[in-house]
Amino acid sequence: MSSFAQFNLDSRIMSAIERIGYKEPTPIQLQAIPVVMKGGDVMGAAQTGTGKTASFGLPLIARILPHANTSMSPARHPVRALILTPTRELADQVSANMTQYAADTPLRVGVVYGGVDIRPQSDMLRRGVEILTATPGRLLDHIEQRATNLSQVEVVVLDEADRMLDMGFLPDISRILKLLPANRQSLMFSATFSPDIARLAKNFLKPDPFMIEVARQNQTADTVTQEVFQVADREKTDVLIDILKTRGPENKPLEQVIVFVNAKITCRRLARTLERVGINADAIHGDKTQEERQAALDGFKSGAIHVLVATDVAARGLDIKELPCVINYDVPFSAEDYVHRIGRTGRAGSHGLAIMLATREDGRLVDAIEKLTRQTFEQKPLRPLSRQARSEMRRASGERPERRGEREIERVDTPEDERLAKERARAYVPPSQRNRDPIFDTPYRERSGASGKPEELRVFERETVRKPRQAAVLLCGFPRRRD
Predict the structure, then answer these.
(1) Are 209 and 237 part of one and the same domain?
(2) Is residue 436 part of a domain?
(3) Which domain holds residue 243?
(4) Which residues pair with 379 in a beta bridge?
(5) Which residue has the higher pLDDT, 295 or 481?
(6) Considering the domain boundaries, does residue 421 fall inside one?
(7) What is the pTM of this model?
(8) Looking at the 3D structure of the chain, how many domains does it have?
(9) Are residues 251 and 150 in the same domain?
(10) In angstroms, rounded to a whole number, what is the distance separating the alpha carbons of residues 348 and 330?
(11) What spans are recorded as compositionally biased (Basic and acidic residues) (predicted)?
(12) Is-contact 157 79, C-beta < 8 A?
């Protein structure tokens, strides 16, 4: 049985490991820690939940620990280890882990990301910090304000590199790399591999980096049961509600689920619809403030919220232990995103369930996922339960029968939606009033020619009595608008 003692880590790091409760190294830690401690570059293929942060965090601290000091001078605490992450949630999570690992050492740990006031971060950087976790954009802001410099960085980590590329961070990463010393140690981790990742690794890492693969590239965990259901688009929400209320133990409701969607507006509407049918749900997406996102996440972790509806970007970096189920309400546009999504469940050897709702229009997206993950899904047709069946299940569980209209999706839920709805209502013209002359209130005659455009009847062809307003128009023309 292997243990962390075999790595000959500093006693202060070992005490932190014991306090956290780590018993034995995970596969990626067994491979990465010795290489990182020796100073070699690493290209790691690892998903979340594999112990990836400790695999680079523990040896990273061991590498820069000789520089640790208790001086109050900021000059004695330059940035020596830089960890780049794609999202603020992941940055917060990684920084919290690094703080735990370095708790018994004089090393200073800090984190910077966008969406919050920049001034406290600038003050922290000017006081000095050895281990810095950052999102690329906010780090460049601090560099431009001369709050920090990277000239003494010894180790740089690119975490979730595939997501970095998906989010368009490549130009920012390139700018940051030019500011780092050439003799630095570089570590890069990605859950999926693509030609773009290979090109980034070629520029980011030294030749012949140490390759670490915990599982086959672009593969899903064996501990995750994957189910794909073919549903009609108009029935997706009802099917989702049935799954949430019946797929738990003993056909009871699922208690902790992340539901992934592709768009922020879907995220908002779906969370509100689930609330209306009695499911404790909240949404987490890019339009929410950091405080709102954190509140939703805290509620989900505590059990107050049972369903978290999320977009891909917002869900990056969520650290939720033993998540039993992930549901793809929308099939992801990118096959790599599917691997990331279902990687949220079945972590650390626990069993997980991943469900995907696919419509006929999603065929190409499902084919791309099958090609990337090298598996073939059995797509089972699934329809919502009948109202009678749902009512019987609710009676059996002690709940009142479902009332008519409870499942209707809320169509108008934002001021912008309301404004557009009012404009559409004002602009509506009944079918009986369409293609009518606005003055004479008589239908147009369809031209018999090939163009098919409506042609107004000439005045002398009408055998009707003219009203005064109509006669005035015939004699004097249309009145001018008074603006």
Answers:
(1) no
(2) no
(3) 224-397
(4) 228
(5) 295
(6) no
(7) 0.62
(8) 2
(9) no
(10) 26
(11) 389-426, 434-462
(12) no
Q: Is the dihedral angle over the CA atoms 342, 228, 249, 383 positive or is it negative?
A: positive
- If asked whether residues 172 and 241 sit together in one domain, one would say no
pLDDT tens for each residue of 203-262: 889 888 998 877 545 456 667 888 999 999 888 999 999 999 888 877 788 889 999 999
Residues in a beta bridge with 260? 310, 328
Angle at 50 between CA 44 and CA 54, to 5 degrees: 75
Positive or negative, the Cα torsion across 332, 337, 340, 346?
positive
Tell me, yes or no, whether 435 lies in a domain.
no
- Pair 335, 207 in one domain: no
Using CA atoms, how far apart are residues 266 and 85, in angstroms rounded to an integer? 26
Indicate if 39 and 134 belong to the same structural domain: yes
Task: Report CA dihedral (170, 175, 181, 183) to the nearest 10 degrees.
Answer: 30
Answer whether 14's CB lies under 8 Å from 3's CB. no
Report the C-alpha gap between 133 and 125 in whole angstroms.
Answer: 11
Are 49 and 180 contained in the same domain?
Answer: yes
Neighbours of 235 (CB within 10 A): 15
Examine residue 304 and state whether it is found in any structural domain, yes or no: yes
pLDDT tens string 382-439: 877 655 555 555 555 455 555 554 444 434 345 555 565 566 556 555 555 544 555 4
444 token code pair = 């147009």
**331 & 209 share domain:** no
Q: Could you write out the three-class secondary structure of 372-430?
A: HHCCCCCEEECCCCCHHHHHHHHHHCCCCCCCCCCCCCCCCCCHHHHHHHHHHHHHCCC
Q: 108-123 b/e with 16+ CB inside 10 Å = b? A: bbbbbbbeeeeeebbe
